[in-house]
Every structure is written in C-alpha cells, then in structure tokens.
Design goal:
Elements: E1 18-22, H1 38-53, E2 57-59, H2 61-64, H3 74-87, E3 90-93, H4 101-112, E4 117-122, H5 131-134, E5 142-147, H6 150-171
Parallel strand pairs: 1-2, 1-3, 3-4, 4-5
C-alpha cells in the first residue's frame, strides 16, 4: 500500500507511516471452522481500520492469513513477521491472557529492533502478565494501555503511540 499525500493523519500519529499489529492468533482459531471467531477478530479489525484511515500501512498476520483460513507455513510466516516488524515504525500488541507465545517472540524482536512498543493489556489483570512483559519498559521504549474495550481505547492507543515515538526520538 502506498501512502497518499492527502491522508488524514491524526496529530498523535504524525510522522508514523506503518505499524505492526500483533496478538494471539493460532490459539484463537476454531478447529471446526478454521477461522478466528468474530469476537477474536474484532479488536484487530477495529485497529487495522483505524490505522489505515490515518494512512498508515498495517502489517498484521491475522488479516494476511485470512483470520486463520489461509495459514502460512511456520518457516515462511516467522521470517515474514520478523521482516515486517523490522520495517514497521511502531509495534502494537495484545500480549494475551493466557500468553500468546508468538506475540511474545514478536515483542522480543520489536524490542531488539529498537521499535517504539505499545502493549494493550487487559485492565485490572496486571498480575496475569509475565514479569518480562510488565518489565519490558526497563529495556525498551514501551507504553502500556490498560483497557477492557479496544474500540473505546483507540484515542488512548494513539496517545500512547505518540508518547512512545516521542520518547524514542528524544532518547536518540
């Protein structure tokens, strides 16, 4: 996707051109239908639509793999995810409860690549997240958004992206 110069960029996302959106995936795919249930797709679909309306390129395995209907073999999807995380300006993830192993690996890659990271964590459930997730900000540029309703939290997510991007830029 090419970014149009006429895009309507939210001030919070100024200077951001792409985002990698991660979260639980294969553990949510229904073995009978071969797809994620609509409720599992909703947070990702809302964020993809929001970011694309801002003119951002969105890298997301869920959509790329048709919500589970067109799963890519492990060797190919692993390399592709890592490459897209490296290309993205910002990394946004739902770590998952229970933890999503793939998302946790992707969080490690984003941290190693020095990406600004925004983690969307379920409000009131901090203790359900691993120590390394809760402590990631000690070694990476991380903003935590605690929420129970992703669509309602979109403005807060944008603000967290802006804070993370600004912190990373001032640290350099």
């Amino acid at each position: 996707m090419s970014v149009s110069p006429s895009r309507e960029t939210d001030a919070a996302l100024e200077g951001v051109h792409s985002v990698f959106l991660a979260g639980p995936f294969m553990g949510l795919v229904d073995p009978e239908t071969g797809r994620m249930p609509d409720a599992g797709c909703l947070p990702f679909a809302v964020l993809i639509e929001h970011f694309e309306k801002q003119g951002l390129e969105v890298y997301n395995a869920h959509r790329r793999e048709a919500w589970g209907a067109e799963v890519i073999p492990p060797d190919r999807c692993t390399a592709l995810d890592q490459k897209e995380i490296e290309k993205a300006d910002v990394f946004v993830a739902i770590p998952g409860i229970p933890p999503s192993p793939g998302t946790h690996i992707e969080m490690g890659w984003a941290s190693a690549f020095g990406k600004p990271i925004v983690l969307l964590m379920e409000e009131g459930r901090d203790e359900d997240y691993g120590y390394l997730v809760r402590g990631l900000r000690s070694v990476a540029t991380v903003e935590y958004v605690r929420c129970t309703d992703i669509p309602a939290a979109v403005p807060e997510i944008d603000a967290a992206i802006r804070r993370a991007v600004d912190r990373l830029r001032t640290a350099v």
